[in-house]
């Protein structure tokens, strides 16, 4: 059985000494699954590159003029902090390095076996973080399906019957309309018509109008094309709600819906006429 290739870790090297950066670069070249996306020669440059490049792992020199490694850490967004392996010539910094939640620290000159060990720890942490992210993603999906805040696998077990029931109900095509953190699910078959108003879409359903910020093209991708058809550059209509069609002298048509609304079908969508008899 072939061995799976190591997941590539996007890595940044930070050291004010060019020879030190080059030495670490050569050692990392011997390690599988490491992609060096940049090198910084001082603390301020390191903060800028971490913000712009979003590395997963940073080899960070502690002793740098101007801004040392610990000051770099304090300058970064704590919610988007990459994994850190400190590099130092002085063992006295080890305790402080771990207080900064570093994965590991390496003493200069760097030993290949210690580098390998530090990278092993980084991979373990990365796998743990990915597992936690997947768990959070799963629980978010489950929360949406159940309508409850499900924050743990224990709660998932408690709500499983409701989740299954709601999942079956959502087989009916629905449109999710989000507004200020609230999601309203509109059954697509109940929609009468949709028209564009600038950057907003007005979804008309059983006498109610829902507003959503999106483009006509993006909205079309979410709709059931068997029910809702575009008849104009700014209008979508429910073909089941068309009650009457009336031709116009210029080749356009006016469609009267069950609700009494009259919408226009432009000449470029004339091929859609056959669908209204279904």
Task: Give the arrangement of secondary structure elements.
Elements: E1 9-14, H1 18-29, E2 34-40, H2 43-53, E3 57-61, H3 69-75, E4 83-88, H4 94-99, E5 104-107, H5 112-146, H6 153-158, H7 160-169, E6 174-179, E7 182-187, E8 191-197, E9 200-205, E10 208-213, H8 216-222, E11 228-232, E12 235-238, E13 242-247, E14 253-257, E15 262-265
Parallel strand pairs: 1-2, 1-3, 3-4, 4-5
Antiparallel strand pairs: 6-7, 8-9, 8-12, 9-10, 11-12, 13-14, 14-15
Helix pairs in contact: 2-3, 5-7
Question: Can you walk me through this structure?
Answer:
By secondary structure, the chain is an alpha/beta fold. It has 2 domains: 124 residues, Rossmann fold (3-Layer(aba) Sandwich), CATH 3.40.50; 106 residues, OB fold (Dihydrolipoamide Acetyltransferase, E2P) (Beta Barrel), CATH 2.40.50.1020. The protein is built from 8 helices and 15 strands. The strands form 4 sheets. Strands 2-1-3-4-5 form a 5-stranded parallel sheet, sandwiched between helices. It is elongated. The two termini are 55 Å apart. The model has no long low-confidence stretch (mean pLDDT 82).
Q: Given the structure, what is the number of helices?
A: 8
Fraction of residues in β-strands: 25-35%
Task: Please tell me the overall pLDDT.
Answer: 82
Provide the domain count: 2
Broad CATH class of the largest domain: Alpha Beta
In the CATH hierarchy, the architecture of the largest domain is: 3-Layer(aba) Sandwich
Largest sheet: 5 strands, parallel
Rounded to the nearest angstrom, the distance between the terminal CA atoms is 55 Å
* Helix fraction by DSSP (H/I, runs of at least 4): 25-40%
Question: Helix/strand/pairing class, anyone?
Answer: alpha/beta
Lateral strand order in the biggest sheet: 2-1-3-4-5
Q: What's the count of strands? A: 15
CATH topology of the largest domain: Rossmann fold
| Uncertain runs | none
């Amino acid at each position: 059985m072939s061995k799976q290739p190591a997941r590539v870790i996007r890595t940044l090297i930070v050291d004010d000494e060019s020879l030190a950066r080059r030495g670490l670069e050569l050692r990392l070249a011997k390690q599988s699954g490491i992609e060096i996306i940049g090198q910084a020669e001082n603390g301020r440059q390191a903060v800028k590159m971490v913000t712009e490049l979003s590395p997963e792992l940073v080899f960070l020199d502690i002793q740098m003029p101007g801004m040392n490694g610990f000051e770099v850490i304090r300058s970064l967004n704590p919610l988007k902090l990459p994994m850190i392996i400190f590099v130092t010539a002085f063992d006295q910094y080890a305790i402080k390095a771990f207080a900064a939640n570093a994965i590991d620290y390496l003493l200069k000159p760097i030993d290949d076996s210690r580098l390998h060990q530090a990278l092993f720890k980084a991979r373990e942490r990365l796998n743990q973080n990915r597992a936690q992210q997947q768990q959070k993603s799963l629980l978010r999906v489950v929360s949406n399906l159940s309508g409850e805040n499900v924050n743990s696998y224990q709660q998932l077990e408690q709500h499983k019957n409701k989740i299954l029931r709601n999942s079956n109900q959502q087989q009916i095509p629905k449109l999710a309309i989000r507004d200020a953190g609230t999601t309203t699910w509109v059954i697509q078959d109940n929609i009468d018509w949709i028209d564009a108003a600038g950057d907003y879409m007005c979804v008309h359903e059983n006498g109610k109008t829902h507003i959503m910020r999106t483009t006509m093209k993006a909205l079309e991708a979410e709709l059931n094309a068997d029910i809702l058809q575009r008849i104009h550059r700014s209008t979508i209509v429910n073909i089941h709600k068309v009650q009457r069609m009336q031709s116009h002298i210029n080749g356009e048509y006016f469609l009267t819906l069950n609700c009494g609304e009259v919408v226009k079908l432009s000449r470029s969508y004339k091929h859609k006429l056959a669908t209204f008899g279904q």
